[in-house]
């Protein structure tokens, strides 16, 4: 039995790798690290991608021979500054904590700036029949939901049962 | 004493108006960390003037590079002077991107605002009988919002179709109709050339001719729009366009006696008129008899030319009466009309529009009455003594005449500084001191002698710039000065009071 009321396809873990997203509306719910892996792939074919990001992380496009710490973080910040032109999107992609993690991922910022892709910073509140609902009460209708491996799907489902 | 804890208020800030002022206020509040706001809009969509005004030919009057927020510059404008629908789309874009929509209440008309002196908050009454409470209020009501109907006898007896340009009815087919346009202001200048080719006959009723300057407009084809994406290009085009706007209005009007810009502009305007209109008699009627700048000038490459058409007739005889079938002028001529277009503009600096709802401050003082007694005045166009926690975007002597978006951002700098200090000190009441307000009022009046508005020829201009007292509540400053002052003025010009601030 499906753990949720969602009528479309719910992809968990690595299920998204083998899928064809052509013409589909997709929502990606994942940590920054996971989203940065999933979104560039999905955005290549999907008709629209809504990215629900939990707290952002800093990204570097390639492995650099730089020790972790302030220097690596500055480089990642520079990467963000150079890759994203829009200050508001940059602000949404900037981690809030003092010493954020730096992850090596390529293509996330570029994918986010494609016209078919949009970043949402509101937490997902529940998975519903036609998609998902974010915390401010908007229902996002999609065909496929991709959940990152580290997202606790049970909590979403339980919450939905409470409402129903 | 009644206890009104912070959490009992609906919102920290209420923004009244969902036009670009309201949207700008919302975004800049959010950026400054004041996320608990509510934007209240009377209409059924955001965008204010650009939501309501959809008449044929509606477009911006200043270059689009200047008519946008500095923090949200678009590369996609289709023309130098973008058409109205692009502005409406821009408003929607801003509202979505900055997550304003969630904190917007549409179809809600505010009818009253009253300050609660015990709890230091505003109580806003809506037309539906609701009450919204907020610590602070940002009045983003704009000025060009309330259509003004002409006071002509018999207008209610007219049997044909009547529409105001700001409430254009797109279901009305003008093809083959006899149409009359009353008014030759900014809306008429855009409407007339856009409908002249489809109507059977167009009569334009003019009271005061408008200064019409050539419009340096052009389409922005795809290569140009792509070039706009090159870093720095948007900034440069904005700078050029800001300089142009600054020269053509604020500097020309406020420093009329020092700068010869108005004189040059008049020569350009007369030259434009001479080349555009063939018939010398019509040209004579279209020649303004007041100095450029007394009244809002217009920019168009098609308005004057429209009078060369055989189906367009310019009537300058005053209107005597509107009959069920048409318009009778003072010389006894009857004009039969199928569709009557009122391009009669808006209520501006007059009773019932500043703002359109009653505002009651400390001691039950009514803002409109207070202004009637003391003339229009407000500290930097933002706040009025006796009306704490109430901030206007476009108060008297706030707007200097350059891009409206400059005004929004400048005034928000001012307002955010006040709110930040209030938050830091725990103050619940922020009120401008009467001394600071008087000092500012004296300063703006002192600059009068430089302004174009107060020379004799302006008396015939019939301009909405003038209020009932004959004042022109524009801010007599260059834009750079307004930006400087809003970020540098002494915050001690305000009193910060309230529970925690007392210590």
Automatic annotation (TrEMBL), chain A:
<dbReference type="InterPro" id="IPR036188">
    <property type="entry name" value="FAD/NAD-bd_sf"/>
</dbReference>
<protein>
    <submittedName>
        <fullName>FAD-dependent oxidoreductase</fullName>
    </submittedName>
</protein>
TrEMBL record, chain B:
<protein>
    <submittedName>
        <fullName>NAD(P)/FAD-dependent oxidoreductase</fullName>
    </submittedName>
</protein>
<keyword id="KW-0285">Flavoprotein</keyword>
<dbReference type="InterPro" id="IPR036188">
    <property type="entry name" value="FAD/NAD-bd_sf"/>
</dbReference>
<dbReference type="Pfam" id="PF13738">
    <property type="entry name" value="Pyr_redox_3"/>
</dbReference>
<keyword id="KW-0560">Oxidoreductase</keyword>
<keyword id="KW-0503">Monooxygenase</keyword>
<comment type="similarity">
    <text>Belongs to the FAD-binding monooxygenase family.</text>
</comment>
<keyword id="KW-0521">NADP</keyword>
<dbReference type="GO" id="GO:0016709">
    <property type="term" value="F:oxidoreductase activity, acting on paired donors, with incorporation or reduction of molecular oxygen, NAD(P)H as one donor, and incorporation of one atom of oxygen"/>
</dbReference>
<keyword id="KW-0274">FAD</keyword>
<dbReference type="InterPro" id="IPR050775">
    <property type="entry name" value="FAD-binding_Monooxygenases"/>
</dbReference>
